[in-house]
């Protein structure tokens, strides 16, 4: 943040090309490059929309510490500012998610899911406004931004899986998983009933389960599943999930599975 610029006695400070000057209550003069001022306004919009999606331009101007007139120099309409704010919010979300090492699959997924939930916990209203199709803020432009974020999350997931040319069924499985992550995040934000670490662990395991299911119908994915299982540490999230899942099978359930594998009819 630039230091306040003092006003010389007997006259106003000279405005420099490409520099915005603003007086905010109790803050004195500030001179900022136009691109920095624009970024400040967008950051103020994200912060404001994260609390109230009905926030007005006056509310955002107050958060940014500028006048509404100055805000109009950068954004002629509320729609323009909302669109810019959501585009910036999508970029920020991806910075949160991508800034994690490529560990073994379920560890890498848990790290990214943790950062995803870190983001939406702080920017809950903005996230819900972006991904909820009937949201008051969900214009066509914002829906396109949300879809772009989904595409980027899909690409990030393929990097975790070390896949460069996904088969159609694999892409379907990953996109379906991302839709599930989105829905689980909305449910968690709205209710808060489930413990966040359990939600993250469940979602990470769900992708492994989805790959195993997809490999059932697409033999080319069996190598990917084998690679996942070989690189997964025994004390990792997916190993824990498999052990816990095995423990849920009662004798009755095991007998029912054995019957299905043997193609036996249902008992009368």
Automatic annotation (TrEMBL):
Keyword terms, alphabetized: DNA-binding, Transcription, Transcription regulation
Question: Where does the HTH tetR-type domain lie?
Answer: 35-93
The entry's DNA-binding region feature spans 56-75
Keyword DNA-binding found: yes
Output the InterPro entries linked to this UniProt entry. DesT_TetR_C, Homeodomain-like_sf, HTH_TetR
UniProt GO molecular function = DNA binding
Instruction: Name the domain of life this protein comes from.
Output: Bacteria
**What's the short name of a Pfam family annotated to this entry?**
TetR_C_46
Keyword Acetylation, does the record have it? no
Q: Where is this region: Disordered?
A: 1-32
Cited PANTHER family: HTH-TYPE TRANSCRIPTIONAL REGULATOR LMRA, TRANSCRIPTIONAL REGULATORY PROTEIN
How is this protein named in the record? HTH tetR-type domain-containing protein
Q: Tell me which species this is from.
A: Actinomadura macrotermitis
Lineage per the UniProt record: Bacteria, Bacillati, Actinomycetota, Actinomycetes, Streptosporangiales
């Amino acid at each position: 943040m630039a230091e306040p610029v003092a006003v010389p006695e007997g006259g106003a400070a000279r405005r420099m090309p490409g520099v915005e000057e603003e007086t905010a209550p109790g803050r004195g003069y500030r001179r900022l490059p136009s691109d920095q001022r624009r970024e400040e306004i967008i950051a103020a919009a994200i912060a404001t929309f994260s609390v109230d999606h009905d926030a007005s331009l006056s509310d955002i101007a107050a958060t940014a510490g500028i006048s509404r007139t100055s805000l109009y120099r950068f954004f002629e309409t509320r729609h323009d500012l909302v669109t810019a704010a959501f585009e910036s919010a999508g970029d920020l979300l991806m910075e949160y998610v991508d800034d994690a090492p490529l560990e073994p699959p379920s560890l890498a997924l848990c790290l990214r899911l943790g950062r995803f939930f870190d983001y939406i916990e702080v920017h809950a209203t903005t996230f819900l406004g972006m991904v909820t199709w009937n949201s008051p803020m969900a214009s066509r432009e914002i829906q396109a931004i949300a879809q772009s974020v989904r595409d980027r999350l899909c690409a990030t997931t393929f990097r975790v899986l070390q896949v460069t040319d996904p088969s159609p069924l694999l892409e379907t499985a990953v996109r379906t998983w991302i839709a599930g992550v989105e829905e689980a995040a909305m449910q968690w934000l709205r209710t808060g009933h489930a413990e966040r670490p359990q939600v993250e662990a469940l979602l990470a395991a769900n992708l492994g389960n989805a790959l195993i299911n997809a490999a059932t119908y697409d033999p080319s994915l069996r190598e990917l599943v084998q690679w996942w299982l070989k690189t997964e540490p025994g004390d990792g999230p997916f190993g824990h999930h498999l052990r816990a899942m095995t423990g849920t099978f009662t004798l009755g359930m095991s007998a029912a599975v054995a019957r299905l594998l043997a193609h036996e009819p249902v008992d009368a």
